[in-house]
């Protein structure tokens, strides 16, 4: 059964007349690697903000682990589905890398020893061991992205959602980020959903692709199927 399901989900921003999401249906199964492909303004970020209850649909449903997101399960949902935002500066909250990665697991109320071991494990996974005492604000864009990913991994989510994870990165750094994402999927069994407007990323990465345009899902299939049609 799907880990995440959107059923006829639509969303209007209060100050806008158009639908940012228009009757979206999708199903994501455990262990999948999904790419959401669409131009700027297509609705990718809006869709992602529905996956862990940052936004509540204007109509339709968002179901995680068989349960509709509600006030009762929102905390659980946020631990199940971790989101890495496009701009790492939105996610950096602490003066050191170590404290930054510790923020999520601390918030979960885990014992300090457990927090420490999760932080060092997560930093190792993203190849950022040794940066513990550094200020995250002074890292490169790629390093900030990796620290943001570590912060999400330290919460041990079932699903990691990444909004445009390679945007603004040079090709070498982008490949490094993609290989970390591959590793969390293959070795850790994490379901991964990423958005991109870069068609070169998709065949490299995705088992399955959704194409979004004007808030609507216009196509769904394997990368091969999608690029044959478009
Ligand atoms: P993408 O992530 O694909 O670039 P978004 O989800 O950010 O697209 O935006 C989808 C649509 O919703 C766009 O038309 C955008 O202008 C609009 N939008 C996004 N955020 C807001 C907001 N806070 N208020 C009003 N409209 C918004
Ligand atoms: P109903 O459909 O009966 O209005 P919902 O299940 O939509 O009830 O919501 C029940 C409560 O959970 C409401 O107070 C709502 O604000 C909250 N809620 C629902 N979805 C979300 C969400 N995605 N994020 C945060 N709170 C939510």
UniProtKB/TrEMBL annotation:
Residues 6-230 form the ABC transporter domain. It is found in: Cell membrane. Keywords: ATP-binding, Cell membrane, Membrane, Nucleotide-binding, Translocase, Transport. GO terms for biological process: cobalt ion transport. It is a peripheral membrane protein. GO terms for cellular component: ATP-binding cassette (ABC) transporter complex. GO terms for molecular function: ATP binding; ATP hydrolysis activity; ATPase-coupled transmembrane transporter activity. Belongs to the ABC transporter superfamily. Part of an ABC transporter complex. Responsible for energy coupling to the transport system. This is ABC transporter ATP-binding protein. The chain holds residues 5 to 234 of 286 of the full protein.
């Amino acid at each position: 059964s799907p880990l995440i399901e959107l059923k006829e989900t639509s969303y209007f921003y209060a100050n806008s007349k158009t639908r940012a999401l228009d009757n979206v249906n999708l199903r994501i199964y455990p262990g999948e690697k999904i790419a959401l492909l669409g131009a700027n303004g297509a609705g990718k970020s809006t869709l992602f903000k529905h996956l862990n209850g940052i936004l509540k649909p204007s109509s339709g449903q968002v179901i995680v682990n068989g349960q509709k997101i509600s006030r009762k399960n929102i905390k659980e949902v946020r631990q199940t589905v971790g989101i890495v935002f496009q701009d790492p500066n939105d996610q950096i909250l602490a003066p050191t890398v170590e404290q930054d990665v510790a923020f999520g697991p601390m918030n979960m109320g885990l014992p300090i020893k457990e927090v420490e071991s999760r932080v060092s494990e997560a930093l190792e996974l993203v190849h950022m061991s040794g940066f513990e005492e550094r200020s995250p604000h002074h890292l490169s864009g790629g390093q900030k992205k990796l620290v943001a990913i570590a912060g999400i991994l330290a919460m041990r989510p079932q699903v990691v959602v990444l909004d445009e994870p390679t945007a603004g990165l040079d090709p070498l750094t982008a490949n490094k980020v993609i290989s970390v994402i591959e590793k969390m999927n293959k070795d850790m069994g994490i379901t991964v959903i990423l958005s991109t407007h870069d068609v070169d990323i998709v065949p490299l990465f995705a088992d399955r692709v959704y194409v979004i345009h004007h808030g609507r899902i216009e196509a769904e299939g394997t990368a091969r199927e999608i690029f044959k049609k478009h």
